[in-house]
């Protein structure tokens, strides 16, 4: 039958249009994401629309859903399939067209509906598609909600009805007016803005120009083949291109926005790539004294400098370490009424009065520029004033979805034994283990290493930070990689550490 869900349907076949393809692995921790043709087809998105329409009516008590999509060659078509499914449940659809994920979240507030769906593969490579699924204002489904959504989709018991379709075209103007309500900058900052030829190229340059910046566009022209770089702020090659352009044009800083506009990457005026967690610390130091007692949420990949920062301590800002992932951090920011949340990956979550608690890279760029405007100092100078640490890029070795969590569980047990045995890693013993999300082992000198399962791809996530030396950073990461190699269960890395400067 056409709507019976299958886990395998031949590509380039009659069956591709006559059957529904939707594999279980696409329902991830807090998003749904598949490879097109191998794991999902358009009929699958019709079923997903029927499932969400049922959820919106029965759980959210909403009859209206805002729907949008990113800039990929196939996203609009999959969005239309989703809309067909929604309409069949009696849901009224407000189609806001191509936009950034945070603009979809803004549209929910602007149009006053708790229900929203964004068709996007975020920063994943071409060939991926997926949906970010709202379960309220400034809130997206977490693990339990995703599993309930999956159950509804697979059971096939949906509401029936005849919804109405509306095309709404005024979101971007309302979004710009909302972001810039604080007025223009006092100084004219020269900024390189890179969007990897993705969705943000349509929206980011206008916002920064109206803020008062001189904007040098880098790969902001649309090209859904992403010919230069995958628009991912954790991709070293993407950051290197921003660095080169920043130096070439003598810009004050360079900013990169990811594929759906909810993550930021930054390069200072000296061309140095500054990881987003350290930038978050600088901003937290600026805003926490204005809101004493409010928490700051960070993810397990973030720098350890938050824990002993004197300014955060003085303002009694509780630093909450939480799970990596936009749904997790959004929820924790709301739960703790934190002033902001920061992830090393570039998701920043500004709460009232700076934002609405969700991750928006354009808002992040604006807040960063306002911070620099107020500080009246180069970003490089402010970064250099922080205590020195050495941080790794985020590495992602392939590990199949069906085994990646068990691989991490095995490593947790190994590091527990290492702690008991006083094993030396990078010259120091383990003093603490943080297992809120994978395993982060903290050494006696406060250096650390992290291994966790990726929430949205078949891979692991590796990060390390040294408080002692660059050589120690490499020692920690090589220890982690050796441990993983011994499992025999990982494959190719998405990127590697830069060559060790000492040549060891």
Structure description:
The chain folds into three domains: 5-173, Alpha-D-Glucose-1,6-Bisphosphate, Chain A, domain 3, CATH 3.40.120.10; 184-387, Alpha-D-Glucose-1,6-Bisphosphate, subunit A, domain 3 (Alpha-D-Glucose-1,6-Bisphosphate, Chain A, domain 3), CATH 3.40.120; 390-487, TATA-Binding Protein. The strands form five sheets. Strands 3, 4, 5, 6, 7, 8 and 9 form a seven-stranded mixed beta sheet that branches. The chain is globular. It is 35% helix and 20% strand. By secondary structure, it is of the alpha/beta class. Strand 22 and strand 23 form a beta hairpin. Helix 4 (101-111) crosses helix 6 (171-179).
Q: What's the short story on this structure?
A:
The chain folds into three domains: 5-173, Alpha-D-Glucose-1,6-Bisphosphate, subunit A, domain 3 (Alpha-D-Glucose-1,6-Bisphosphate, Chain A, domain 3, 3-Layer(aba) Sandwich), CATH 3.40.120.10; 184-387, 3-Layer(aba) Sandwich (Alpha-D-Glucose-1,6-Bisphosphate, Chain A, domain 3), CATH 3.40.120; 390-487, 2-Layer Sandwich (TATA-Binding Protein). The chain is built from 15 helices and 23 strands.
What layout of secondary structure does this protein have?
Elements (H helix, E strand, L loop, with lengths): L4 E2 L8 H4 L1 E2 L10 E4 L6 H19 L3 E6 L5 H13 L4 E7 L2 H11 L3 E5 L8 E9 L2 E2 L2 H13 L9 E3 L3 H9 L10 E5 L9 H8 L2 E5 L17 H14 L3 E5 L6 E5 L4 E2 L1 H12 L8 E4 L10 H5 L4 E4 L3 H11 L3 E3 L5 E3 L10 H15 L3 H6 L5 E2 L9 H20 L9 E5 L4 E5 L4 E6 L6 E7 L3 H18 L17
Parallel strand pairs: 1-2, 4-5, 4-6, 5-9, 10-11, 10-12, 15-16, 15-17
Antiparallel strand pairs: 3-7, 6-7, 7-8, 12-13, 13-14, 17-18, 19-23, 20-21, 21-22, 22-23
